[in-house]
Structures are given as structure tokens and as C-alpha cells.
Amino acid sequence: xxxxxxxxxxxxxxxxxxxxxxxxxxxxxILTIICLLPIYILxxxxxxxxxxxxNGISFLPGSNLGKNIDKLFKDVNYNTVYNVWIGxxxxxxxxxxxxxxxxxxxxxxxxxxxxxxFKLKEISYTVILLVMMVPMQVTSAGFVAFMLKLxxxxxxxxxxxxxxxxxxxxxxxxxxxxxxxxxxxxxxxRIDGCxxxxxxxxxxxxxxxxxxxxxxxxxxxASWNNFYTPNMILISSKxxxxxxxxxxxxxxxxxxxxxxxxIYLAIALSILPIVIVYVALSRFIIAGVALGGVKE
Amino acid sequence: xxxxxxxxxxxxxxxxxxxIFILPFFLVYFFFQFWPLINTFILSFQDNAGEKxxxxxxxxxxxxxxxxxxxxxxxxxxxxxxxxxxxxWVGNFIPQIALSLSLAVWFTEANLKIPGxxxxxxxxxxxxxxxxxxxxxxxxxxxxxxxxxxxxxxLLLSKxxxxxxxxxxxxxxxxxxxxxxxxxxxxxxxxQTWMWFGNTMIMLMSGIQxxxxxxxxxxxxxxxxxxxxxxxxxxxLLSPIMAYTLVTSMIGGLQMFDIPYLYHKDPNKxxxxxxxxxxxxxxxFHDQTAPKMGFAGAASVILFIVTLVxxxxxxxxxxxxxxxxxxxxxxxxxxxxxxxxxxxGGFSI
Lengths: 296, 349
Known about the structure:
The complex is a heterodimer of chains A (296) and B (349). Chain A is an all-alpha fold.
């Protein structure tokens, strides 16, 4: 008797769990579709011709990709507004330098604060924590006015150099060093006659590789996607200087860009590199976001 | 035990290296962020050409519509931008946190058998890494509202029978996703939620995983339902991270720029329904013919103060309560020890 009363709720419980799991899986699939649908339509429409895009929605790719490419790259009305090679080159130049500067100098600052004892140590770290929250938009009016005075607008310097000071990255690196960089190593290096800077470059940096990799990915994505700062600094928006997001925004402002297929192709090409990076490194990226979440 | 070399090294002061290592950061920070911030404050007290000091006039214009008809327009626009920013933020935060929280709870529930959790996580985070400018232009295409050549979403709605097509002219009775006030706001809220729910979900998930698993175990042994576990364990223990998410999202919401800036029909004019504080400031200092630095500066300072208040609230909420309690405890013990040692005539037991 006791057997049945024990078994019944258990079977009931398992059945309930099964139903819940199935319902949730369906819900997750719906969310996945919502997440991917805009991107899927973008890719499909990039392969279709303008009239069929305007006349109906399709979930199967068309056969007009070659013509769209021709139009986008060869037609004067299009390649004077949006040139994907110039965009890639400029974006890659700015993004590459910013990423390297961000991770190198942030690691260096975190190392300086973590390893050495000096009077302003605690104060400087507190300052870094305090300024982490100041939004870019607040300083940008003064920033542009200052850059105009220095005649640095319409150059890449104001887009690259400021990446040396990235408070949030310093904070992350310091937390990482606290948990996995013992100070004995520095002492051992000193006994062996290693100079301070060399200790940092050839011992600390290799040891911090995981933290550096995660932060480099995020710095790369943030810089590549940045539309606000380049648009604000490259005031005369010379075509040769434009970054990729600026070119995409130019499509929206141009009245010559009328072929829907070409527009969709242009947008698709602008997100292609970042999607490739994401697909290749998604595991690290998800883990990195999760690390950011536990910092409290 | 220390060798001679070790002792020698201990006696050398390495403090100067500390300064050398942090110098580049602070130099760059000073010139490219701190000085611009001060400069913004200076600009806010100057006239729009940045030539002479005019005291609080810019603030008076923006906040109290001083200075005639232009002043009224400037002030009206500022409050409209502020209102829009709040509307757009609230409209994206509520669905976003509801979605993220429920997903985070389901993803971390150990006894649910859901295949491909890793895949779902990766897909749901994907919208977050796509260039916001591209997303704005993409949705502008997808939400096209022209009667003859509607965008994909209107075509989909017409297939579902929501949007009707005139039989004679072939024109569609489209939903005005771009020019309509609430329709366009809805699209922007949707885009923001679409882009950010994956990020929030992963943050909350790592928060839930940080909760001691024995609590969940004890609850399940005592026969708690999933709802009870959520209300009595997960939610209270997750509240600091929730507060952090809330404030970061608010500060991020105040900076909302790319999508409202690009999501409009008229190439040269941002839609009135989507103007945000960030686009308002940007418009003034980026104006190539006559930049209005004074207004831009004053609006920035107002934004700065709002952010500062929010930041302080966050600092207060996420401060280490345990640490503070421990400090108090230690003080108490120290006090007691002192008292006791006095009682026993200076002998400590």
C-alpha cells in the first residue's frame, strides 16, 4: 500500500517536469526564431532583386546576388556612397589599434596598481572606479570643442588614443590579477635580475592571457560597432575616412540608393565580419559576459 | 631565512615603478576625458559661440524657457527629448527584465531537460554584438511603410490578413511603423529589447549560479514548488545584481543614440517621437554651420547630474553589506575586550 502512495506523486512529478521541459523548449525555439528572423530576412533579401523584394516576402534565397554585387560595387550612384573595402580598411585600422592599446595599457595600469605599493595607490584605484560610470555623451561636447581647438578633428587620433584609458577594463584586469597573480613571482623575477618592465611584458602578460583575450574581444566588438564617436570626430565626413557604420548610415541618408537588393546586401556586408568573429568565439564571449555579471 | 639578495631587494623602494605604470592611463584620461568634462562645464556657462561668459543663462533657457521664442523651442525640445528617453527606456526595460529573468531561471533549473542550452544562449546573445547602426538601417528597411512598396513586416502582416491591399490600385493600407508616434516607439523598444535581453539574461544567470546550491536542495527536500523557490530564494538573493542591472540599464538608456538617430524617414531630420537627450546634445554641438556649444554644454551637465545621482544610488545599493556588518562586529568585539580587560584589572584572558 505504501508503495503505491509513494509512487504515484513521483510519476506525477516526472510527468509534470516533462511537460514543462517541452513547453519551455518550444518557447526557446520561438525566441530563437525571433532572434534570427531579421538577420535571416536580411541575408535572403540580399540575394533577391528589388521588385520581388517590394512585392512579397520570401524565405528562400533568390538568384540575384551577382547583380546586387555588381550594382553595389560598380554603379557610381552606389559606390560613391558605400564602399565596403574602404569601410573595412578604415574600421579595421581604428579597431585594431584601439583594441591593442586598450588591453595593453589596461593590463599595465592594473599591474602597476596591483604589484607596487605607493602613496596614491588606493586613491588612483578609487578614481578609476568612480570614473567608470561617466557616459561618453556627457563629455562629448567639451571633447569636440577641445579637438577643434587642437585641429585634431577629421583625423583618427581622437578615435585611437583615448582607448588607452579604459577604466572598466582596468577594473576587470585588477580583479583577475587579485585572484590569479601571486606577487611572489615578481619577487622571484627580481632576484633573477629581471627589470620591472620586462617582468610585466614577459611574465605578467602571458599569465593574464585569458583576461586579455576576453577583454580584447569585447574591445574589438565595441570599437567596430562604434558609430557615435567617429561620426562626431570626422566632422566633414570625407568619404575616404568613413568607418563602416558611417557608410551604413549614409545609405539611409542617400536618395540615390533605391535598389532594395543592393541596400540589403550593403547592410549584410557591414555585419558579416562581426558575425564571423562571433561564431568563431561565441564560447569565450558568453563566458566573458558571465564573468562581468559576477563582479559584485 | 631570507637570502642576502632577497633582503637587499626588500630594502629597495619600487614605488616609482607604480607611478610609471599607471602614468599613461592617467595622462590620457586627463586630456581626453577629464579635461573635456571640465570643458563641457565651461561651455555651459558661455554663449553658443563660446566667446563670452553668460552665467546661468543656458540653464535658464533649457530648463525654464527663458529668452523669448527660441528659448521656448529649445526648452520644449529638451523636455520632449527627456520624456522620449524615459518612455523608450521603460518600454524596453520591463519586457527585457521579465524575459531575461524568466529565461535565466529556466536555464539554471537543474531538473529540467532542455536540449541545446548552449546553442540557445549563443543565439540569444547574437543581436547584442551586431552594429547598432546596421540594425537601425535594417529595421528601417524591414518596417518600410510605403503604400506601393511596403517593407517585409507589412508584407507579412498583409499575408496574415492584418494589412489590407486595395484591389484596384494594389496599394497597401500599411501600418506606419516609421512615422507613427507609438508605432515607431514600439519598434525602437523592440529593437532595444531584442539587442539586450541576451546580455541581461547571461548576467542574471551567473548571478543565480553564484547562489549556494544547498539552499535550492534544502528547498526541494522540504517540497517547495518552483514558484516558491523563485520568490523566497532566487529573487531575494538576486536583488543586488538586479539593482545593478537596473541602474546600468538606466545609465545606458540615457545614452541611447544610434537607433533613434538613424530610425526615421526624412534623411535630415530626426523624428520628434524618437528624439533622445543624446541626440539633442549631439544636434547642438555637431551643427556644422552654427554649433550651439552653450546649449550642448548645459544639457550635458544636466545629463551628468542625472547620471551622478543614479550612480550614487547604485553605489549605495551594491555596497558590501556583509563587510560593513563585519566591521561593526569587529569594533564591538574590540570594545568588549577592552572593557573585560579593565574589569579583570588589566589582565586579558
